[in-house]
Amino acid sequence: MKLALKPVKKPRKPSVAQQKSIRPSTAKRVLAGPAPISTARSARAQERTTPSQWTTGIASGASGVRRYRLFKPSGMHRGESLPLVVMLHGCAQDAHALAASTKMNRLAQVERFMVLYPEQDRLANLQNCWNWYDTRAGRAQREADTIVSAVDHLCLTQPVDPQRMAVVGLSAGAGLAGLLAVHQPQRFQAVVMHSGIAPGLASSSATALAAMRGRRVAIPLAPLAGGLHLPAILVIQGSIDPIVAPSNGAQAAHLWADREGARAGKPRSVQRGKRYPTMITDFRCQGRLVATLCLIQGLGHAWSGGAPGLAYSDPKGPDASRMAWSFMQRQFATQAGGTG
Q: Would you say 65 and 159 are in contact if contact means Cβ atoms under 8 Å apart?
């Protein structure tokens, strides 16, 4: 899905009135619309990494060949094994743009984890969108399999701790992240969907547009074999998102909760300083955290707490990258024998 309707030329966030003025017909351009905006130059300028930290690779899978970028924190020690966070970009983005807007590499340097940024191929989608919706034709599953191939390759060639892996996605990337978690639950301990569509709500471009407008009802997720559980999910959704209807965030959290037999706790409102207020709801099953829904009041279709001056990035916050990492850490600890 296309992340924005026109480039953000100034760091100032559009007003609520401007976002609400977008006509529904505009969504028809999301999957095959105008040429994507150019954010690569500004993204590269903001993302400061050395060649040894920021490397390039190629993964081959069912959907063909895909390039990826890998960030490794400096000062790694012999024998050190680090968590891996897979970051899936949205439409009109690439690895540099997502890394710059989320500031995830800076956090990875401090907290010591590696970040994998798979990149969509223009031949697969002219807008650089992951084909998260195309499950009927199988393109979505094939792209998910190719990302898994990249993860498997890194587990063999890099000091990755396979018990501490998570997948994070924005918009179209969030849709693919959810699909990965459902089809490969044993590979990830946590999944974060930011402004995306839950698995099962779309199977084609037409149904994807309906889902983005909030006009699709999710079907229950299929049971998992062998007593497997879905990885815990963190859903981050803006309340005034003009591209992905805010109801989609709740649908994703409830899908996870229903599949795992979890119940919603009492929603709590959190606001720090001048950041947007957030309504947080946890879903638990016998004390185990299954899903967390964060509905951010006043946020549009942008990474919450992202770098200023970039498209698809709202610097006001709260900081979605830190929220995601804190969530992942809790799940890593749970898998290692902690409490949920």
A: no
Task: Could you list the beta-strand ranges (E) of the chain.
Answer: 54-61, 64-71, 82-88, 114-118, 160-170, 190-194, 232-238, 263-264, 268-270, 278-285, 288-296, 303-304, 313-314
How many CB atoms neighbour CB 82 within 10 A?
A: 18
What is the spatial distance between Cα 323 and Cα 98, in angstroms, rounded to a whole number? 16
Q: Which two tokens stand for residue 217?
A: 């009802």
Are the CB atoms for 303 and 102 separated by under 8 Å? yes
**pLDDT, tens only, 262-286:** 999 999 999 999 999 999 999 999 9
CA distances from 245 to 178, 197, 313 (A): 17, 9, 18
pLDDT band at 227 (very low <50, low <70, confident <90, very high): confident
The pLDDT of residue 47: 55
The reported pTM is 0.86
Quickly list DSSP for 2-21.
-S-SS---SSSPPPHHHHHT
CA-nearest of 268, 298, 288 to 331 is: 288
C-beta separation of 141 from 133 below 8 A:
no
Gap between the Cα atoms of 204 and 81, Å rounded: 40
For 11, the token pair is: 């760091």
Q: What does the pLDDT look like over 35-71, one tens digit per residue? A: 333 444 555 555 555 656 899 999 888 888 999 999 9
C-alpha 177 chain-centroid distance: 6
